[in-house]
């Protein structure tokens, strides 16, 4: 059972954006599965892997989305860009030593952040891109 799923209301109707959002949901699920997996006592390497994947994929997705927004002369581009930059900044703030010492807390923090981001950003901001076309 996936904790995070792309519900119908998250779809923008812009195919590549929806596919990339699905991937972000998948990464969030990896983090959740890691949190609930009691068979891995030391999760440090796995957590760092998820953080790195999130960092790389988010950059790829945001570049893609921003290029698209520019191409349609999207009026809310700047607020989107700020939002994207905040996301990257937050992910960059994960300090490997702190993650190592506080694995559970780091995962919980990451999941809380991803939950609010996926809901707030995709549902409230990205949906508007499709309406602008």
Automatic annotation (TrEMBL):
<protein>
    <recommendedName>
        <fullName>Hemerythrin-like domain-containing protein</fullName>
    </recommendedName>
</protein>
<feature type="domain" description="Hemerythrin-like">
    <location>
        <begin position="12"/>
        <end position="129"/>
    </location>
</feature>
<dbReference type="InterPro" id="IPR012827">
    <property type="entry name" value="Hemerythrin_metal-bd"/>
</dbReference>
<dbReference type="InterPro" id="IPR035938">
    <property type="entry name" value="Hemerythrin-like_sf"/>
</dbReference>
<dbReference type="Pfam" id="PF01814">
    <property type="entry name" value="Hemerythrin"/>
</dbReference>
<keyword id="KW-0479">Metal-binding</keyword>
<dbReference type="GO" id="GO:0046872">
    <property type="term" value="F:metal ion binding"/>
</dbReference>
<keyword id="KW-0408">Iron</keyword>
<dbReference type="InterPro" id="IPR012312">
    <property type="entry name" value="Hemerythrin-like"/>
</dbReference>
<dbReference type="InterPro" id="IPR050669">
    <property type="entry name" value="Hemerythrin"/>
</dbReference>
<comment type="similarity">
    <text>Belongs to the hemerythrin family.</text>
</comment>
């Amino acid at each position: 059972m996936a904790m995070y799923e792309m519900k119908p209301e998250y779809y923008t109707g812009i195919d590549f954006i929806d596919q990339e959002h699905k991937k972000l949901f998948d990464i969030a699920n990896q983090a959740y599965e890691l949190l609930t997996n009691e068979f891995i006592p030391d999760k440090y390497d796995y957590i760092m892997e998820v953080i790195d994947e999130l960092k790389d994929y988010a950059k790829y997705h945001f570049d893609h989305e921003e290029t698209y927004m520019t191409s349609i002369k999207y009026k809310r581009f700047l607020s989107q860009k700020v939002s994207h930059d905040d996301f990257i900044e937050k992910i960059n703030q994960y300090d490997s030593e702190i993650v190592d010492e506080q694995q559970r807390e780091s995962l919980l923090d990451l999941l809380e952040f991803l939950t609010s981001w996926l809901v707030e950003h995709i549902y409230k901001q990205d949906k508007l891109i499709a309406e602008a076309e």
